[in-house]
Here is the input.
Amino acid sequence: MAPILDINKLYKNYGATEILKDINISIEPGDFLVLVGPSGCGKSTLLNCIAGLEEITGGTLSIGGNDMTHVSPKDRDIAMVFQSYALYPTMTVAKNITFGMKVRGVDQATQDAKLKEVAQLLQIEPLLNRRPSQLSGGQRQRVAMGRALVRDPKLFLFDEPLSNLDAKLRVEMRTEIKKLHQTLDASIVYVTHDQIEAMTLATKIVVLKGGVVQQIGTPAEIYNNPANLFVADFMGSPAMNLIPAQARKNGSGTQIAIAREGGDLLLTESRDLALPQDVILGLRPEDIAEAGFRAGDGVQEAECLVDMVEPAGADTYVVSELGGKQVTARLHAETSAQAGKPLNLAFDMSKVSYFAKETGERLN
Here is the structure.
């Protein structure tokens, strides 16, 4: 079966300025691909290239096995949901949803059947006779999604659809979109700057920076094995701790020395890794626990001075200074940690990632 979307060596320039550089992405039918990165990384431009709203400078793009590189947006068999909803204010919800079908000459019986099906799916049946001004933000976004769903396209494109919603509604709508994907088995490309949104929704994530793909993988691959320092720092909340360290050969293993006030913190890396002397050690906050709450072959304990304690409901974040960096540990809510006092912490060395100090590339 051909990929539902295949992008090969895509470039996009505005004059002499390169916006997208050598983009290569392929997804299968039913995939939920999320394009994620900071503002200005090129993710919305890439989505517009897929939609045909931006002409690409170089490379090819196919949808459903058909070359769409220079095909008009209306002939690409796509449906798009925008951040701004883009609803017609003078039309009812029902007419907003069916308008595209009416323009394409779809018969009334099919329009009515599609409207009923989508209204039930999105739970907006009581809203069909209202106008957009009478709807909440979440309801408007459901209508915008309904307008896309009645198209039954090969590919759905979502451009930061939840960014105008408040935090609680964002979580609810995330769940709705996830359910829709599972119910319809639809192929989706979704743009967001919110890495939690990306991790929650995606079957595959593309991390972008400066118009260059940094890593492509499943949420678990991106989170557990970031390809470089940028991905490690960007994906995760709180972010991965990135600590300057020195690797020293110690018998059959390697000793990892982390500078701190009062003497180096010494940890042992038992894996057979070819590490340079200067490295950046990466460890997620949840992989640093209070001593006695984490067990395993790779777990090593060390006393650290607590600089700050941040209660966060189910978790408590404890911050210490190691290697000249603020290092965060995610501890249980009932921890006895106190600012200014020492605390025994357990470091799970089996979860450590190492990065080159100069290039930022992953070493293990």
